[in-house]
Amino acid sequence: MLQDVFIPHGGNAAFVTSQIADDVILEPVLKWKVDELFHKWLSLPSTLQYLQEVTVKVRNNEYAGDVEIVADPSANAAVTPTPPPLSSPRNHTRPKKPFSPRGSPTPAKVPTPRKEEQQTTPSEDVPDAREPSPRKPPSPDSAKQPSPRLPPQQNHSTPRELSANIPRFYFPKGQPLPDDDLAQTETQLREAFDKLPNRKASKVNIHPIMRILKLPLYLRVPLMQKCFKSDNRAALPHVPLDALLTTWRNIVKDCHSREARFIRVISKTSSDFLVPKDFDDLLQDVVDTHPGLLFLQEAKEFHSRYVTTVVSRIFYSVNRSWSGRISRTELGKSNLIDTFFLLQEEDDINRITDFFSYEHFYVIYCKFWDLDLDRDLLLSFNDLVKHDSHAVSVRAIERIFEGTVSKKLTNKNIKMTYSDFVWFLLSEEDKQQNPTSVEYWFRVMDLDGDGVLSMYELEHFWGEQLQRMMQQHFADLLPFNDILCEMLDLVKPTHPDRGITLNDLRRCKLTHIFFNTFLNFNKFLDIQQRQNSGFYRGEEDDASLSDWERYANEEYERLVCEEANDSYISYEDDFEVDSPRVAEPVNAEAAEIEVEKLDLNALSLD
């Protein structure tokens, strides 16, 4: 059977025809999920207690499957009171003629365990079904075996009755807490409110309340907004006890895990996921009140830029599905909640390198400002090509503007937003330790969207690198076959004949070398020099830092030195950029790339 399958990939979409056999059964996939849920059910304490009780009944011959068997008083004394359950195969043997063993109550009206058959009318030649045949006396075993037939009320049970004894084992929003814990929380809240002025909480004195609720301090504004059902962050009144208790009861009645409560408090629509707008009021409160950002109070124009940077970094690291929505599962696998708890304890914002560092924001925004010459907070295709002295492959940037990594970018005429630039810079400077970066550049290089980097696709991107070496008059040009062999030895794909898959790159520990070889000319030259020196990284590098943290620290120091040397540099007003490392606009159609002249004597390429 031929079936058309729609496979979306980034901004592109392709229809492929797959051959699906008619006899293919998808039961194994369902079986895996059932086995997973069954193991979770077995791990519950209530399940273990239930199984122990059933085991005791089985040992005492008091339990026979889902149906309790009650012996008939009129049966022979030799009949076993607890026969095997009806589901056993040995009790489903088909006799040649309908018969009823001794001791069965009202055998003529009892349904058989197999499919109902039309009853045969007794005749003179056929003995009565209610009496044993005179031609064949009952065997000794027949006196020991009870009737396989049961009364109708004991033979079948409704699904509700069968599932009544199975405890619930799947809690998507967390396992409910005992009522005693909820009552204790309410008692602690009443005691805390008794110590507050007028028994009302405000942003200033709500710290003990958030500690009792086990929520990060900077979730106070969304929580207070839910108490009054208002989105006005600036004019939040004091919260009384009754309003807080009502709001908290509505939250905990179906949200029991930490992740579920975090999402319910922040979400403006009480959804089961988070979108970028849900973080605006929360992060604005961080900008207004955190001790490490007090110097930013007067620079109001940078507040929204800092918030946008933090939100972009959160979704870059947490939203692993690229859906634009953070789910409970993604939130539980990340360190976002722990980072919010750390934020309320750490006064130095730059020590929190995950999401909130102001130094990282400063580097990102300065890089964006250097490229955005028209100051419209948007980057065109020609603007992005200038990044890092035209080091990034033009063909890679073309792919970015085709919508492979952002739904907003569909062609070169559409400009890149600041949020998309944050993703670009994070991916460009950390191609090794960040899984999102690996997926980012894999999407860029996967031209046909089939999930495999073929030899044709690798040669497509290597062609531009080779052209740059020819323009710089390199003495030793590396042919594609040599680069291909080197990359296959580096990645070690599972199926080299097919190509390199995303899983192959995830397993590889040197993905930055792979991507930089095809996508960044300057970093490719640096790799060649390091290989000739016998190592991939500088010996002075701190192994505890990620590539992005190392890059941000170096760039921040450089920017601070430049600012100290200049008399005045303002990123608030328009100014003429005087930077020798930014070349003239390039002609992307002809791929005529102008780069700085390289010292060929310092290069040694094998």
How confident is the prediction overall: mean pLDDT? 77
**Number of H/I helices:** 25
Per DSSP E runs of 2 or more residues, the count of β-strands stands at 6
Whole-angstrom Rg: 36 Å
Structure class:
mainly alpha
Shape: flat
**Proportion of helical residues:** 40-55%
Instruction: Tell me the fraction of residues in β-strands, as a range.
Output: under 5%
- How is the main sheet built? 2 strands, antiparallel
Runs in which pLDDT lies below 50 for 5 or more consecutive residues are 1-27, 67-145, 573-606
Within the largest sheet, what's the order of strands? 1-2
The first-to-last residue Cα distance is: 52 Å
Q: Which helices and strands, and how do they pair?
A:
Elements: E1 2-9, E2 12-19, H1 27-42, H2 45-59, H3 140-144, H4 152-155, H5 159-162, H6 179-194, E3 200-201, H7 207-213, H8 220-228, E4 239-240, H9 241-252, H10 258-266, H11 280-289, H12 303-318, H13 328-333, H14 336-343, H15 358-371, H16 381-385, H17 394-400, H18 418-429, H19 435-445, E5 452-453, H20 455-471, H21 480-491, E6 500-501, H22 502-507, H23 511-519, H24 521-533, H25 547-565
Antiparallel strand pairs: 1-2, 3-4, 5-6
